[in-house]
Every structure is written in structure tokens, then in C-alpha cells.
Automatic annotation (TrEMBL):
EC number(s) given by UniProt: 6.1.1.10
Enzyme kind, highest EC tier: ligase
Compartments (UniProt record): Cytoplasm
Pfam families attached to this UniProt entry: tRNA-synt_1, tRNA-synt_1g
Occurrences of domain Methionyl/Leucyl tRNA synthetase (ranges): 139-389
Species whose genome carries this gene: Panagrolaimus davidi
Annotated signal sequence range: none
Gene3D superfamilies the UniProt entry points to: HUPs, Methionyl-tRNA synthetase, Zn-domain
Keywords associated with the record: Aminoacyl-tRNA synthetase, ATP-binding, Cytoplasm, Ligase, Nucleotide-binding, Protein biosynthesis
UniProt GO BP: methionyl-tRNA aminoacylation
The name this protein goes by in its record: Methionine--tRNA ligase, cytoplasmic
Similarity field: Belongs to the class-I aminoacyl-tRNA synthetase family.
GO molecular function list: ATP binding; leucine-tRNA ligase activity; methionine-tRNA ligase activity
Domain Aminoacyl-tRNA synthetase class Ia stretches: 5-92
Amino acid sequence: MADYLSTWKSEPTYFDESAGKKLPEDGKRNVLITAALPYVNNVPHLGNIIGCVLSGDVFSRYCKIVGHNSIYIGGTDEYGTATEMKALKEGKTPQEICEQFYHLHKQIYEWFNIEFDNFGRTSTANQTEIAQDIFKKLHLNDRYVSGTCPLCKYEDARGDQCDKCGKLIDAIDLIEPKCHICSERPVVKSSNHVFLDLKQLSPMVEEFINQVTSAENSHWSSNAIAISKSWIKSGLEKRCITRDLKWGTPVPLEGFEDKVFYVWYDAPIGYLSITKTLLGDDWTKWWKNPDNVDLYQFIGKDNVAFHAVVFPSCELGTGDKYTMVKHLCATEYLNYENQKFSKSRGTGVFGDTVSDLGIPADIWRFYLLYMRPENQDTTFSWDDFMAKVSK
């Protein structure tokens, strides 16, 4: 019992090179754990923390207690429109924004006693290398096509996805679109882009989803199963995976030198590149070892499509033998006093201020796990929080 308690109460410790590389071992259950990579420009709130990093941390600690050989990978998603917009608003470079918020994220998770084996980032040479390698293999296999680039009426929907209903949308389909920088109505222009041909990959993806969700030793949350099968039932369509941006992974294709990869394609590859930052070329012993490694991924429901359909499509389309997600653990949303968390509106409890409240991290960990939105949205309220932690 003392050993178990010491595991749960341990302070966060990140990878120590002197301890040697943690690699899969024969005769042991090898478990690869990931937490969804948050946009670096945002300060994580309580819903972000329980939805991904805290849930993954608890499972990682469980694995250690029962003797599994496991590594826990997390980090920040640093490329894309959100980072460029944040940099413009604050008069900084994207690199400066990433540096500032990466360390803020890491500080917050350390305060919550989240114990990663490596907490990395996507703006690295390893990310560029792996993302471009996967792209080249998909391109050679004709998984991409070249082309020229609303549901719930939510007024703050972005040009890629609605945060309210989760629908993936094209920017040109927005009702009353306006620029976040100048508030003017955007002008539609033609631009050549690269699309992931999900329709061509659909048979492989459907077979994978059906097999993994029906396997006795595989566990996907009910919402992950419902969302992924809904995508399959609706018919997979081509998805644009490039953008006209400066800040991102360059597209290694003639005629597209001025494009970067979009987060739908790029971000999940961050798990691989962060593992490579930890282990060097031995990253493949975790990520290309499906017979000897179980992959658990902790995400919010708004990330299901990327982890259940888009990223597996890329892995399957390369023809390489990747470690595919076996256990997809997706939470619903944690709201704040029946409202959405909003930093700009001052709604909610955010990681950069929670440590100033004088309430120990273990109290927060307990309550967030108690309120974990496993099967439906739940709500944080101060009255309920005080009632639960005062017992």
C-alpha cells in the first residue's frame, strides 16, 4: 500500500536521460499513452485539464502501479492560424508566442502534478521530418488529390470547425463571415491546395474502426464509437490539409512551396515527433510496433474525428505498420456554471490563476475526476465544489 500511495503522490518528473531510454519490453504489457495536444495560444482551463492531461495522468499512474511498461506523451500544438492570429494581436512573432505559452502550459501541468515522460511541442525539426515523410508516402500512393480550395448557427464558429456542435466546415460556408483582425467581410479567392482523399481510404478505415471497436480487448468510449461510425456512414470526403500560412510545417511538393500543413493532418503527428525528441530513432519501437504495444489516447469529443478517422487514414495510407489506437477515451464537455469556459469573457477557472486560490492541487484533481464528463456534459459550480471537498 505504501508503494501505491507513493506513486499517486509523486511530484511530476520529466524524462531523465541518465535513467536510460524507456522502450517496449518482451514479456511485459507495453502501454503508449497520449493526451491531446492543446493549441499553444490558449491558457488551459479546468475542462481541458480533465478532458485530456489529468485523465491520461491517472491512467499512467495506474499502469505503473500494476507493473505495465508505459510512457506518457503530451505537449503543445504550436502551428497554424491560431498562433499567427495571437502573434498579430500581441505584436509578437509566432515563435515568441509559442515559447511564452509552451512554458506556461508546462508550468500549469506541473502544478497539477501531471507526470509526463515527455512534454514536448510540434514546432520542431522532428515534426517536420515525420510529417513530410508520411505525406510523401501518401502522395506516392495517390492518397492525395490537388484541388482549389452550417449546421447549428453558432455565431462564433471558426472557418474550420464549430466549437459548439463540433461540425467540420469550410470557411466559405460560414454565415456572415468576418475577419477576426479587422472585422471586415473576407473576399473569396482561388488557391491551389492539397486534399487527403479519405474516400479512397474509406474501406481500410471502415475495416479498422469496425475491428477495433468490436474487439474484446479494445475499449473506445461510446461517443468515440458513435462519432467515428457517423463519419463512415455519412461517407468520407476529401479533406483539405494545407493552408496559405507562413507558420507551419512546409509542404514538400513542387508548386506548393508557399503552403504549410493544416492541423487536421499535422497535429496528431506531434505524438510521434515528441516521442522522437524523447527517444531518438527508437521512437519507432513504440509507434511502429502494433503487435507489442497498446495505444491509449485521451481526448475531448471535439477531437474524435481526427484521432478516429483522419490520423488513422494517414497511418493506413502509408502502408507502414503503425501502432494504431486501440483505446480511444473521449470525454464530453465540462462547463462552468452552465456556461462555456471563456478566457476573453472571464468565464471559468483557468490554469494560470488556479494556483493563486490557495486550494491544493490534489483537491482539484479529486473534484475534476469526480466530475469527469464521461458520458455527458457536466458542470463545474463553486457551490458543488465546496460541498464535495468539504465532506
